[in-house]
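Contributing: when you submit paired examples, paste them exactly as shown. First protein:
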Amino acid sequence: MSEFSNDNNSNNSGNQPPFPPYSNNANNQFNQNFPPFPPNFQQPKKRRWWIPLLIVLSVFVGFFVVIALIIGSLFSGFDFESKPVKVSKNSVLYLNFAGGVQEYASDDNPFAAFSGEVNNSASFIEYLRAIELAKIDDNIKGIYISPKGSIGFAKSIELIEAIEDFKTSGKFVYAFIETGNEADYMNIVSADKIFMPTEGLIELNGFGTSALFMKGLYKKIGVNFHVQGFEDFKSAGDSYNKTKFSDSARYQLEVLIGQRYKTFVEMIAKNRNLSTDKVYAILANGVYTADSIKANGLIDEIISENNFKEILKEVASGNKTGIKSDNMSENKSDNKSDKEDKKSKSKKENKDDEDKLNLVTVAKYINSENIGDIKTKNVKIAKDDKQIAIINSVGAISSGKNSSSPFGGGDYEIKSGTFVEQLKKAREDKNVKVIILRIDSPGGSVIASDEMWEEIMKTKKVKPVIASMSDVAASGGYYMAMACNKIVAHPQTITGSIGVILAIPNFSELMSNLDITADTLSTSPSAQFMNGMYAYTDKDKAQLYNLSKGIYYRFLSRVAESRNKTFDEIRAVAKGRVWSGQDAKDKGLVDELGGLGKAIEIAKAEIGIDKNTKVKIKSYPEKKDKMEELIKLLSGENSDGNESNSNVNGINKLARLIGMEASMTKQIYNNLPLEFKNQIDYSFQLLGIAQKEKAMIALPNEFYIR
C-alpha cells in the first residue's frame, strides 16, 4: 500500500484522523500535528499500468492484421497458382530426388510466388505415374536421374522397376552423380549410362547400422529405467537400460541387413554386367574416386555436369554424337582460327528451341498442359463412380490432429484424429469403391493405433480396405494393416514387430545424490504405484508386467483373428520381431508381395475392374492452399483446433533441454551423422507420445542402413 494512501479503511495510530483528500492547498487543511508537505507538492496520480500494455498489444495485433489484409488483397488480385507448363519436343524427364521422395508431398512455402521458387515436390505415386506416362509420350525422349536425396529401400526398388519398364520403349536413361553413398548409387544403378565429374566420390563400403545406448549417461546422473518389453525381440527400450544390442536385437538386424545387402549386390551385378563376387570384392575395399570407380565398371564416363548436359541435349534432339570425357575434350585441337570460333558460336546461339535441353521435373510434368492427352492415349478409363481412395499414413503414430500451419507441422506424422476424418470421408464418398491405406510407419501410441483400428474395422464393413506397406509398417503400423481386408507388402518392407514396450524412469538415486527427500500421503496401498521418487518394488514390477501383458495379448489376439490363425501360431512369429516383407509373407503375416502398383491392381480386382483399365484416384491428405492457411494463421483463425505449440520442432525442444541457443543447436544438429539425426528425430517423436501415454508399440529405433 502506498504511504500516501487515502484508503478510508486503513488503520490509524493514536487519535490521528484519517488522511483528508489531497488538494492543492493540502498544507492549509491538514492536521497541524502532521509534518507539512514539501513545497510544490502534487498529489500522485493513480498509475494506469495497463495502458502501455494495451498499446503494445494493439500494435502487435494490428501488425499481423495489416499483414493479413495486405496478403489477402494481393492474392485476391493475382493468381499465383502454378500454371501448367507445355512439354516441348525433345524434352527429358528430370528425376531429382532432392528432399527425398515421400508418399505425399506439398509446397510448404507460402511465399514461393514472391521469391520465384518453384514447387518441385512430388509424391511417390506421382513419380511412378510420370515415368509410366513418359514411356508413351512422344515429347519425352529420355530420363535424367539426379540422385541427390534419400529414398526408402522399398520405394527405391519400385522406382527402379518403373524405370526398367520405361527402358523397354527404347528411350534413354542417363544419370549424373557427384558424390554419394550406396543409397544414392542404388537410385541410379538402372541407368543406361552413369556420368561423374573428375573429383567425384562415392562411398561404397557395404551396409551397416548403429544405435545410441544411453544407460551410461543415465547412470551418471542417477536415473534408472525399468523396461518391460514383450517379448525378447522387442528392443525399443534397450537404449535406456543396455549398453549394446541384445542378442535377439542383433540377430534380427543382421538378418535384415544381410537380405538388403544381397539385394543391393545382385542389382548392381545385373545392371552393370558384373559377377556378384566382383561386386562383393569392390564393396569390401571402401570409398572410391571417379577414376577407380570407372575402372571397376560402376560408371561409364568422367565428365563435368555442363558437358554432360550438352550430351543430354544432343541425344534428346536425335543427334547421337559420340560421348567424350573431360580428358578427351581437353585435347581438342587448338588450331581453329578466330573466324571459325566466331562462326561456331554464332551457329550455337541461333539454334532453335528443339535443340535446347528441355528438362521437365516430375511436379511440372504431372500437371503439364498435354498430360491429359497422354493419360487417355490408347487406354480404357473406368467410370467416375468407380474410384480408389489412397490414404497416406506416414510417420510415428499419436493422438490428436495434424497441424494446418502453412509452414508445415514438422516431420511427417500420423495423428489418429486426422486419420479417422480422412477414412470417414473416403468411406462416405459414393464414388469411392475401395480404399488403400498406404502405410509408412514404425508405430507409436497404443491408444491412437487402437482408435484407427476401430475405424478401419467399421469402414471395411462398407467397402474393401487394402493395406499397402511402404518402407516400414511395423508395430503400430502393422496394427493398422491387420484390420484391413488384405495386406500387400513389398519384399523389402520392414514389418511385424508385434509387441509392446514400456520404459519408465526412476529418480530415487538422483534424489539421494542431491540429498533430496520426499514424503507422501496415500489413501490406499497402491496409491504410489510406480512413483518415480521411490525405488520400484517387486510388487510394482509384477503389477506393471501384468498390465503390459494384457496389452500384448490383446494385440496377439487381434492379429490371430485377422490372419485366421491361432493365438500360439501368431505368438511364435511375434515376440516383437521385425521381419522383411518376404519373410512376413512366408510367416503368414501378409497376403501379397508387391508395391503400390500391386495394391492398386488388387483394389481394381475387388471392384471388378481390369488391371489395364485406368481409374481415378483420390489421395489423402489433400493438398491445401498454403497462402489461404497463412492468412488464417495471421488472422487468428485455427481450423484444426491444435495448440500453437504443437508445431515446435525437435531442434527447439533439444535447445531448451540442454539450455543452448536454438541457432547453435541447429548448427550442431546439422553436422551430426545422418543416422544420429534420424534417431534424435525419432526419439523426440516417441518422447512427445510418452508425455501422454506410458505404453507404446513402436520399432526399437529409426532403422537406417548405411
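Second protein:
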Amino acid sequence: MSQARTLLVTSEAIPLIKTGGLADVIGALGATLTERGLDTSILMPGYPAAIERAVGLKKICDLKDLPGGDGELLQGKMPGTGVKVLLLRTARFDNRVANPYVDHSGHEYDDNALAFGALCHAAVRICAGKTPLPVPHVVHANDWHAGLIAALMHAQKIQNVGTALTIHNLAFQGNYPAELAPQLGIPVDMINEDGMEFWGKLSFLKAGVSYSDRITTVSHTYAREILTPRFGYGFEGVLNRRKDALTAIPNAVDVACWNPSTDTLIKRNFSVDNMTGKATCKRDLQKLFNLPVQQFTPLMAIGSRITHQKMADVILEAMPGILERHPQLQVAVLGCGEPQYAQAFQALAAQHPDRVGVHIGYDERRAHALHAGADMLLHPTRFEPFGLTPLYSMLYGTIPVCSRVGGLCDTIIDAVSSRPEPNANGVLFDGETAADLSHAVDHVLDLYMRPVAWQTMQRNAMQGDFSWQGPADAYIRMYADIAPASAKRAFLDLLAPKASEPLIADPSHYKMTA
C-alpha cells in the first residue's frame, strides 16, 4: 500500500517566515504529521526570506500562465525538521521582502489577490498531476490565502483529492472586486450567493467554505462562536449552512521549542520541579527592556500584535490608572501592528521609563525571554480563535490574564477568587472596557501577593498537556474521512496504537460540539 500523502498550503510557516500563530501551527503540524509517517509537503510562497532559509532547494518545474504571470516551483526541506517544503517563486512574491501581506506603510499590497491566487493555482496543478510531484490524497488549505483551491478543483472536476480548509482567523477573508474573476481563473457562474460572492465581492475565504469537503477551526468555543452574528463577520449564514462539514480541532504547542527545561533562548533553564532559573530569566527580561532589576516586584508582559483586535486601545486607556494603583508594577511590551498604537505604547514608556519597557518588532529571543521572565501575561482580545501566546506563557509558569472568548475558554481555568480552585491556571475576564481590564489586573496582582495560591497556579499551568499528538490524530482521522477510497486505509494505519504513544480514548474529543 502506498504512503498516505497530504499537501498543506499556507502563506507562512516557521522557520521560513512568521508574522503570527499561523506560522507556528503549520511548522509544528507539518513536523508532527511527518513524524507520524504521513508523506507531508508544505506549499507556500517563495518569499526571498523563505528561499534563503530552506534547505536543499532545487527547481522542479515551471508553472506557466498563473494569475499575474509565470512562476517556478522549488522543492526542499525545512531546516531543523526536514519536512518537505514546496516554494512557489513569482515576481510578486519576490517583492515581499518584509511583511508578506502589507507594505512598509502598513497598507495591503494591491496585488495580493493575484499573488495568492497564483499559490492556489499551483496547488491545483499539483493535485491535477500537472507537475512531477505525486498527486496528494488530501490538500489542506489554511486561511483565505489558500481559499480558492477547493473552488478551482470543483471547477476543474478534480475528484480524486480530498479538500479541507482550516479557518485560523475568520476576520481575514480575502475579499476582492468580482471583476478580478477572469484573471483569477474563476468561472463567472461561481460568483454567486452559493459560491464565492460575498457582499458583491469575490471572497477567497468563502470559496473555501463553500466548496471544501471539510472545514475546521482551531478551538471548540470558536467553532460555536463563528456561527453567531457577533463573531461570524458576515460568514455566520454560510457557516451554518455548512455546519455538518464544520469540525473543531484545537491547536497545540511545539513543546520541543517551548520548553523551559531545554530552551536555548532563555538565560537559565528551569522546570516545574525546580523554578530557580525563572528568577534569573526575570532579571534578564528586565535588562532587555531597560527596567530596574527588582526580583520581587511584579513584572507583567504584553506580547502580541498591537492591534484593535488585541484591545491595544483598551490597554492604553487602562494602563495609567493601573500604574498609579500599583506603584511597584513593571510592564514589558513586545509586538508590532497598527502604528498609532505602537507610538502610544512608546509614549507611555517615555512617561514611565522605570516602569514600562517597549520593543516594537518581533524576534524569537525576546519572545522566549518574555514568557520565561514575566510573572504574568496580559492578553486581552475582542475575539480569539485559539490563543497560542497564553499557552507559551503557561508552560513557563507565567500566569495569563485573558478575555473570556474563543479558545481561551478551552485552555484557561479561571481563578475566580483570591483563593482559587485547586486546578486554576489563569485569570479570565468579560468585557472590553478599561474598567473590565483594570479589574482583572487588580485581581491577578492580588493573587501574586498570595504565594501559596500563586505557586499552585504556576504548577497547574506548567503541567498542562498542550502537545500536538491528540490534534494530529484528529487531523489524520479527518484526512482519512475525505481521502479517496483507495487511500483511506493508508491514513487509518497511521493511527495504530504505539506502546509509547497511546491513542486518545475518545476520538470525538476533537469534534465540534453543538
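If you have annotations for the second protein, write them as plain sentences, like these:
The longest strand covers residues 55-66.
Residues 499-514 have pLDDT under 50 and may be disordered.
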